[in-house]
Structure formats: C-alpha cells, structure tokens
Design a protein that fits this description.
The complex is a heterotrimer of chains A (460), B (321) and C (354). With 321 residues, chain B is an alpha/beta fold. Chain B contains 11 helices and 14 strands. The relative contact order of chain B is 0.13. In chain C, the strands form 2 sheets. In chain C, strands 2-1-3-4-8-7 form a 6-stranded parallel sheet, with helices on both faces. Chain C has a two-stranded antiparallel ribbon with strand order 5-6. In chain C, helix 1 packs across helix 2, helix 1 crosses helix 3 and helix 4 crosses helix 11. The chains are: A alpha+beta (460), B alpha/beta (321), C alpha/beta (354). The interface between A and B is large, with 50 and 51 residues.
C-alpha cells in the first residue's frame, strides 16, 4: 500500500475569497486573525471580510500552519482569489487537506453522457477528445453539391441575379468550395474573374483547394500564438480526429472532383534524359525540380496557349507565368503555393523560391496572395520512386505537369552518324494533363517536347 | 454622469421614480427593512417609508395580482420577484389578468415586474432561470433585458412610465460585474435594439448577459469583422434592427442563455428565416443552453451555459461556411 | 353545513332602516332585469345567436343585486359570471349586455370576450378572468391603493365555493388581513362548483377561515336581496372606516346547470324543489306587493325594456375582423377606472343618516 495522499499534495491549502451571495463579485479584507507561522485548526477563523451584501468571517479550510498571507487588510479582491495558504504537510494532523481540485475530467464527461440531450447545436461542445465528435462542429450546415448543380445561398443568388453573374463560374472560397457572399461581391466589384481582363488586380482563383482566409494582412501575424495563425490558415477542423474527413481533405476532394467534372482531361507522357540536369544540379546544389520548373516556364513562353485559364467558355491567355508548385502537408493534405513571375527567375532563383514557399506552406505561414493567381502547376510526388501519374488539372488552369522519379535506365542512343548504342542514363517520365476543351493533342505534345528539349539541353 | 454598477443603476432608477412620482411604489419580499435579497432597495424604506417600499407576504401571485389592482386604480407599482424563477408562482396573474386586460376591456395595467434572472454562479435549477420567453409568448406583456448599466436605468425608467405590464429582466450575474457611465436624472431608453459593436462579416444577436459573452468571444476572431446586436427589448422585438443587421452581415449567430427550445432566439431565427431569407449567406446558427435544468455544480453549470468558447466556435464555423 | 341556514326571514313588509321604497323597487328591478336578460340570452343561445357557451345566475340574483347596491360610485367591483345584476346596478345597459353575449361590436368588450366576462371600466368594474378566484387579488390590490392614499373607498369581489380551494383565495385573504385592507369578499356559496358538491370542496365552512386571517366572516341568506344589502353595507362601513376586510358567505343555490350544456343530473331533484321555494325574486316581489307596489306593471316594464334591447342588439353589427389585432397594448396614457352608478338613496343622504 503506497502512501500517496501526503506525497502528492505538497500539502498547501488555499484560503480563498468566498462568494457571499450569487451576485457578489468581490470582497475586502477587514482584519487578519492569524499571522504567518501560526498554527490553525480547520474551521478556525482566519480573517474577517466585508462584501456588498454581508460582513463575515472566513474559516480555515484545513488544519496546519499559516504559510503565506497574500492579501493585506483594506485590500479588495475578486471572489476566488487566494487570500492565504495553509501548510498541512507536516504530520498531516487530522484533515488530510484535499486540495480544492480544479475540476476533474470526470465531471463534464458525466454531464455529457447523462444530459446528452438533443445532439443538436444546443449540446455543450465537448472539449475532451472523448466527446462525441459532432459537437465540435456545431452548425449542421447543408452540404454543397458536388460538381454541377452547386447550391447557392439566398444572398448569393440575389446578388448574382442583380448583376447578371453566372454563378457556376464564380470560384467559391467557403466550405467545400461554397460560393460565399464575398466571392460574388468580389466579382461585382471587379476583383473577380468576371472583371475586365485588363483590370489591374490579378484575377482571384483557387489554385489550391484550400486557402487561408483572404482578408487579413497575414504577414503581420505572429506564428503559433494561441493557434490564431493556424486558425486562419488551417482551422481546427484540420486537427480534429474522428470518423469524418478533415475540412482540408473535404475541400481537396471537392476541388478535384469539380475539376474532373469540368475539364476534358487528357494525359500525355514524354521520356526525358536527365543526364545534363543531374550534372548541373550537383554543380549548383539545387533540386531537379528547379530545372524542371525552369524548363517548363521556358516551354510555356514558347507555347503560351498553355499558360492560360479556361472558365466556362471564357479562355484567358496570361502573359506572366505564375507557377504553382504542389506541396505535400503530409496527412493533412496538400497546398499549392504560387511563384509569381516565374519566367523572370533563373534555376537558382526558382530553387530558392520553391524552397521558401514549401517551408512556409508546411509551417502554415503562406499569405493569401501566395496561393492564388497561378497559371500553370507542377506536381512532384516522385521522391518515393513512382514513375508515372495522371495529375488532375488545377482549375481554371488548363495544364499540369507531373514530374516523378529520375531512374537510371538502359536507353538506345543514336549518334550524329545514325549509329545506335545502349547506354545507362538517368531518365524520367514527364506527364502533362491538359484540357481538351482548350487545346488538342498536338500542341500538348509540342509543349512536352519543348520541356524535354530544354531539360536535355541544360548547360549547353 | 456617474459611474455605477448595473445594480446601482437599477436602484438609481427606482429612487428617482419614487422621488418624482408619488404614484410609484415598490413591493416585494424582503425589500423594505432588509433592502432586498440583492440590496437593490437598500435604505429605501428610510427615505420613502414602508407604504411605498412594501414588504409583502411570501406570495408571488398576490404580489402581481395586488399590483394589477393598484395599477387599475391609478398607482404605478414596481414588483420585485426575489428571483425570476419565482414568477412561475405569479404566472397566472401576469399572463391571464394583467396581460389580457387592455385587449379585453381597454383597461391599462401599468405595472413593472423586476425579474432577477440568469445563472453562472451555482444558483442551481431554481435560482438560475431565464423565463423571458414564457412572456414573449403571452400577448400583452412587454419584456426588456438590459446588458449595460446605462440601459438598466434607462429601460427601467421607460418600463415604469409604460402604461403596460413590463417584465424587466435584470441579470443577476451583471449586478456587480458590469459598471458604466450612467447619465444623471430620469431618462428613457427606447425599447429597441442597440448595435453594441458594428461589423460586416457576421452578426451575433443576443441580449442580457450574453452581450458581454458575445463581445468577448468576437473581439478578435481571426480578424473577422463581427457585429454584436444587443436586442435590449424582446417585446416589442426590433425587427427592423435585426433585419438590417442581417442585410449587412448575411451570417447570423443567435445566442440565448435560456434553454434552446422556443427561446427568444428562436423567434429571432424564425423572423430572419421569414423576412431576411434573401440576405442570408449561411444557416442561422443558434447557441443556447441545452434543454436541461440549470445544474448546480460548477463544471455541470459551465457545461450547460453558453460561454465565450461556444460562441467563438459557432462564429468560426459560420465564417468558414 | 352551509345549507343549514336559518329559514328565510318572513316577508316583512315593514320599514327598512336603510332602504327607502324606491331602493327596494330598484333591487327588485335589478333582479328582474338580470333574470329577464339571461332568459332572453338563453333563448338567443338556442337560436344560435350567442356563440360559445352560456352561463347564468338563475336563482342567485339577490347575491349580486344586494351587494352591488351597497357600493358607492367610487368603490370598485370585480364581478363574477353569475352576478349580472351588479353590472345592471353599475349602469351597463341591457342592449350592451345582450350585444356582449352575442359577440357584437356594441358589447362591452366589443367581441374580444364572451358572456359575463366583462367589466365596464368607465363604471368602475374590472372584468373577471376564468381562473377563479384571481380577482380576489385584484380587489385586494385596489383596496391596498385606497388605503395607501387614505381614501374612504372599498373594493368588492365575488367568488364561488370552488374558489376557496385555490391558492389565490389564501393569498388574498392573508394579504388583506395582514394589511387590514378595505375589501369585501363575497363568497357565493351556490352548493356546486360545476358538478362538485361542497363536501368534496372543503372540510370546514370557509366563512370560519376568516377569523384565522384576522377579520370578520358572516353568513347571509343569499336569496334575500335586502339581507345581502345589509351585510354588504355593514362590510363597506367597516372597510371605509378602517376596520379591515369582511368575508360574506352568501348561501344560495345554482338553479341551472353550470352552463347551458349541463343537465345538472348530479343534483338531487328534491334539493332543487326545496330551493325553488326560496326564489329571491318571488320573495322580494311578495315584499313589494305588501308595500303596495304594482309588481305586475314593473314586470311588464322590464320585459318591454328587454324586448327593445334585444332588437337593438340583434340589429347591431359584428366586430370587423381587422379589429382583432387592435389594442393588445395601451398606446397612450393609461386611464384608471371610472366611477359607476350607485342608485342607493343612502349615497345622497348625509353619511350618518344612511
């Protein structure tokens, strides 16, 4: 049998300002009847207090020695403030001085299971992870429809009707890609995709299925304080466990599904010899991805038809290349930060930017602007050895390049004289998913050929 | 202008009325010599005498019924229920006699019933209730619920001047916790809503003690611009102010400390569904006490009463919608 | 028990100390009007002209007539549903009463409430509610105001034997006793609360409870209008002179069912036969005949008045549906109760000479 009670407590018991009546918030010490070092027995008066409603005496909650007196005579303190501490430690005379334990988990849990009434939004939110999972997401919000036939709130429909806006083409920033009032207002105010193409502000798009709240100046936000920063970028739902999908997962799913329902997606592959890239990247100390990005940007400048958006029947070619790079957030999902003005960057410049946005994506510090406005996306899941994929286009872009693993293969080489030989070369397969609504197979093949040419010509 | 607690503001209104209008008298249990369970009428008996600061028998039905009788022959009684919970014992007189009097026979009943309401201090099932919705459902009774010291005084003056029965819901938890600048002398606060803090992304509609909760919960909520609308009056309900806030914000969280079903907020939500539908950008979300009696033990009570965290959570969810 | 009252006073034809001949005719006339109006209303009810339910006070006319007759214009009354004579004495016309029964615009409540659920505020009366005896507390409150202001006025209310079982009876009796208020409580003991007889309502005659609350309780022959007047006059004198409340138990019999739909089969036939012999109108008529009054002419006059009133009420419009939403709240200044009529000659004589 272990002697736990005395070991644990440290045996200091608080004397607190009592609540003398339901509306009393504070009390004043009138006199102390004991001094530090005095021995007191439980129930013995330790001080006199005065409150709005009554003057009274405060009894000792336990026997022991007065260890501290914390509030002076004439001082007024709030109900619950510690007035003194009694050391019950030595000998533990009589009363084992159970510390006034701040509520234990058993209480609320019991309350929930016994009360557990409506199961509706009325039930008190269960803070413990043991609680029913649905109570942490109170509003039983109607789910938006997938794909075609999205549902719109009354105010969104009204504003759209007033301004003749086709809601199907308005990107939604709400839950599950829902079109919110601010989304349709952005279109009305000329900030949205329906604005004249020459408008100064870059069009608002969702390259990422998930995005931080677009309103606040995110740069000024300190990281990790009270979850506030994460609250904007990655709200609580992401961390919630239980049977349901996280909010980010739901959004990614919704976004991907919508893309497949929207685009006429085809995928074309090309094989690339990465020998020169491998040599150059070792020299420069950058990743192969930076070279692929650079080659891709150059190919886009050559075939600007792929650096574009297609929204409904509206096809917009973009001069600048704003390159999206998909970044995995592990179990949480992925996010696609955008490197604006990628066509102006060297391999090293691109490598630095990719490193930077990837890091900040993983620490949830991207700003709103850094995840929108992309014109083309590269995805690079190849580090685990996979060699081919059929990526899904990031709407409303029209192409996405998939870069997988670089693996050594025997390849047939033909020299200038037309002689064939077999050699071992680091090879990769680039996959381009493209929207057949916007272009045809020939152009996509030409684009891929350009990427290949650029990569195989690195350093030449 | 003087700084007063919510409770002092109520006392001040009563004192001013007793001084200004000889028709006014206050009546209730233990309000005279003892000064009231919450000391609202402390010292009144010395200034105004035991006729006008009347210690009554322990009889809530009689307090309301006798006030009705005194009112129809020209007095302006202000009744104190020691706790709002006890209005159940005077319900019949208030609802059937006072509430229906003017409609049936054109006879005005200028009485004010002060109802110390609300929980948050381990009052238990019989000292923590918010019974205001019962009277919203009973024609002929006005219901007001101040959240600030200034409104506590102004609404009480207006209630006493009103020619109808008025339930004055004074929240016990605010008595000594809320302080504020209160204008001098007699002034009336209109029975309309007040924008406690303007905003544009979402509006929290509430009253009484929930106004402070809503303000704290949304003071800095992820940078969102959140309006808090303090209803102040439940009957009449300021439909214009509610619908105006909905039109501007399009997302609504309605907070009641009372039990959820058929609480005041249910009427607000119904009003918005009916007349504010075209302005909505998400479901009307309600936060209220679940339909259980208000329990005594602190962790149980905290699990039931709406607090800052629950309001925050509801706002966050709706903002993201 | 309460039914064992003394045999009704012999139909004395001598002088009455407080009632002149005109007063005694007035009392009779009020009872005749009450019975005549209620009989006409019952007939209209059977014709489908009176909606809802119909209640009357057949056989109890003396209780309201006698008590109301003792009240001054400044006194205030809360009148029960079997006390139509009190309304008549205060000045409500037969046309308005019949219009009220028929839910017409010209009724006292303009159709908002039915049957005897009314009070003419301009005549100092507060209409009853169905929750009995809620009006005991309202009367107590009015009396409280009179006392606080030092006014020589009283409040009077009627309630039934069933009402004595409810809490408001206790709260009102206790409050009135504690504050020694000028209020007159008339317990109208008509033997049945709907179908429930007295022995299932209380173990002790409620009049005996008055002493426990600290004031006087008297039992009166509720079928003798002049005895009722005497008891109420004395109670009023006590009230306005600071002597506190009085509980008057008026012993009578409800000679019809609780309402028009009630065949009263739970009442023994012999009990009805016995009480028929004590009919208050017959007794007062006998008195007046002895005093040389042409009672036949009086009856004919009353019948003609009711005929005219019924014709006028039937010609009156129903309330407009839009008016249903008006007046839930008082929008202007509140206006307290007005003064009623008080036909008793005593009020025109110096107080000591009444």
């Amino acid at each position: 049998m272990s002697s736990s009670p005395t070991d644990v407590g440290g045996a200091l018991v608080d004397v607190t300002m009592p609540q003398m009546g339901v509306s009393v918030a504070e009390g004043t010490i009138v006199a102390w009847r004991v001094a530090v070092g005095d021995t007191v027995t439980a129930e013995q008066t330790v001080c006199e207090i005065s409150t709005d409603k009554i003057d009274t005496e405060v009894p000792a909650p336990a026997s022991g020695i007065v260890a501290e007196i914390l509030v002076d005579v004439e001082q007024t303190v709030e109900v619950g403030v510690v007035l003194a501490r009694i050391d019950t430690g030595v000998g533990g005379s009589g009363a084992p001085a159970a510390p006034p334990a701040p509520d234990v988990a058993a209480g609320p849990t019991a309350a929930e299971s016994s009360a557990g009434p409506s199961g509706s939004s009325a039930s008190p939110p269960a803070r413990s992870s043991a609680g029913p999972s649905d109570s942490s997401t109170p509003p039983p919000a109607p789910r938006a429809h997938n794909g075609a036939g999205r549902r719109y709130s009354p105010v969104v429909q009204r504003i759209a009707a007033e301004h003749g806006i086709d809601l199907e083409s308005v990107p939604g920033t709400g839950r599950d890609g829902r079109v919110r009032k601010q989304d349709v207002l952005a279109v009305v105010n000329g900030n949205g995709s329906h604005a004249a193409p020459e408008a100064a502000d870059p069009p608002l798009h969702i390259e990422s299925p998930y995005r931080p709240d677009p309103v606040e100046p995110a740069a000024a936000r300190p990281a990790g304080t009270g979850g506030a920063a994460a609250g904007a970028a990655i709200p609580a739902a992401v961390t919630s466990s239980g049977e349901g999908l996280s909010r980010m997962r739901r959004q990614i799913g919704e976004h991907m599904k919508r893309s497949l329902d929207t685009a006429a997606t085809c995928t074309t592959w090309i094989e690339v010899d990465m020998s020169r890239v491998e040599a150059a990247r070792k020299r420069l100390g950058v990743t192969a991805l930076a070279f692929v990005a650079r080659a891709c940007v150059a190919a886009l400048r050559e075939h600007p038809a792929l650096n574009a958006w297609l929204e409904g029947e509206k096809y917009t070619r973009v001069n600048e290349v704003n390159l999206g790079i998909a970044v995995s957030l592990g179990d949480d999902g992925l996010i696609v930060p955008v490197i604006h003005g990628a066509h102006e960057l060297s391999e090293e410049g691109l490598a630095a930017r990719i490193r930077d946005v990837a890091q900040r994506a993983r620490s949830r510090q991207l700003t709103a602007d850094e995840v929108r406005g992309g014109t083309f996306t590269i995805t690079n899941p190849g580090q685990f050895g996979s060699i081919m994929a059929t990526p899904i286009i990031n709407q409303p872009q029209i192409g996405i390049l998939d870069f997988e693993a670089v693996v050594k293969r025997p390849v047939v080489l033909t020299d200038a004289e037309g002689n064939d030989s077999i050699a071992i070369r680091p090879m990769t397969i680039l996959g381009l998913s493209w929207d057949h609504r916007a272009l045809d197979g020939a152009l996509s093949a030409q684009f891929l050929a350009a990427v290949k040419r650029n990569l195989e010509g690195v350093g030449s | 202008m003087a700084t007063m607690t919510y409770l002092q503001a109520i006392s001040s209104a009563l004192r001013d009325e007793l001084r200004a209008d000889e028709r006014v008298l206050v009546m209730g249990e233990d309000i005279g010599v003892f000064g009231g369970a919450f000391k609202v009428t402390d010292g009144f008996i010395d200034e105004f005498g035991s006729d006008r600061v009347m210690d009554t028998p322990l009889a809530e039905s009689a307090i309301i019924g006798c006030a009705v009788g005194a009112a129809v022959v020209g007095l302006r009684p202000v009744c104190e229920m020691q706790f709002a919970d006890f209005i159940s014992c005077g319900f019949d007189q208030l609802v059937n006699v006072a509430g229906k009097m003017h409609y049936r026979q054109g006879l005005a009943v200028p009485i004010t019933v002060r109802l110390p309401s609300g929980g948050g201090f381990s009052g238990g099932p019989f000292h923590s209730q918010n019974p205001e919705a019962l009277f919203m459902h009973s024609p002929g009774i006005k219901v007001v619920a101040p959240s600030t010291a200034q409104d506590a005084k102004g609404l009480l003056h207006a209630a006493i001047h009103d020619p109808n029965p008025v339930c004055f819901m004074e929240h016990k938890h605010l008595y000594r916790r809320v302080k504020g600048d209160v204008p001098d002398g007699v002034y009336e606060t209109p029975f309309t809503a007040r924008v406690a803090r303007p905003g544009s992304d979402l509006v929290v509609i509430c009253y009484g003690a929930m106004v402070d909760v809503a303000l704290s919960a949304t003071e800095d909520l992820d940078g969102a611009s959140i309006e808090v609308l303090d209803l102040r009056s439940l009957v009449p309900l300021d439909e214009e102010a509610i619908l105006d806030a909905v039109a501007r914000c399009s997302k609504v969280v309605v907070v009641d400390e009372a039990n959820l079903t058929c609480a005041a907020g249910a009427q607000v939500a119904a009003l918005i569904a009916e007349k504010g539908f075209e302005d909505l950008d998400g479901p009307v979300v309600r936060v209220a006490s679940p339909d259980v009696p208000i329990p005594f033990s602190p962790p149980l009570e905290a699990a039931v009463l709406p607090g800052v965290d629950r309001v925050k959570e509801a706002c966050r969810e709706l903002l993201a919608y | 028990m309460a039914t064992d009252i003394a045999t009704p006073t012999p139909e004395q034809v001598g002088e009455h100390q407080h009632l002149q001949l005109a007063d005694r005719i007035w009392l009779h006339r009020a009872m005749l009007l009450m019975r005549g109006i209620e009989e006409r209303a019952m007939s209209l009810y059977r014709q489908g002209k009176v909606p809802g339910s119909f209640y009357d006070g057949f056989g109890q006319e003396a209780v309201s007539a006698g008590a109301a007759f003792a009240m001054s214009p400044e006194d205030r009354l809360c009148i029960l549903h079997r006390d139509l004579a009190a309304h008549i004495i205060r000045g409500v016309t037969p046309t308005r009463i019949l219009s009220q029964y028929m839910g017409r615009a010209g009724g006292v409540t303009a159709g908002r409430d039915g049957n005897v659920h009314f009070g003419d505020r301009q005549l100092g009366c507060v209409g009853m509610v169905s929750m009995l005896p809620d009006m005991m507390l309202v009367a107590t409150g009015m009396a409280m105001a009179f006392k606080l202001r030092g006014e020589a006025r009283c409040a009077l209310t009627w309630f039934g034997d069933g009402s004595t079982s409810r809490g408001d009876f206790h709260e009102a009796m206790n409050w009135a006793g504690v504050q020694k208020l000028p209020v007159v409580f008339v317990l109208e003991n008509n033997q049945y609360a709907y179908s429930t007889p007295l022995d299932k309502q209380f173990a002790v005659d409620p009049v005996e409870r008055a002493a426990a609350y600290g004031f006087a309780g008297v039992t009166v022959d509720g079928n003798d209008v002049e005895a009722m007047f005497d008891a109420a006059r004395e109670a009023r004198e006590r009230a306005v002179s600071g002597g506190g409340p009085t509980l008057i138990e008026a012993v009578t019999m409800r000679m019809h069912g609780h309402a028009a739909h009630d065949d009263m089969k739970y009442v023994p036939r012999e009990q009805v036969e016995e009480w028929k012999l004590r009919d208050p109108i017959d007794r007062q008529e006998k008195r007046l005949r002895g005093l040389g009054v042409d009672v036949g002419a009086l009856r004919a006059e009353v019948t003609a008045e009711i005929d005219a009133a019924a014709a006028e009420a039937l010609a009156g419009p129903m309330p407009s549906p839009e008016s249903a939403l008006d007046g839930v709240f008082c929008a202007g200044e509140s206006e307290p109760l007005g003064d009623g009529q008080a036909p008793w000659s005593g009020f025109s004589r110096p107080r000591g000479d009444r």
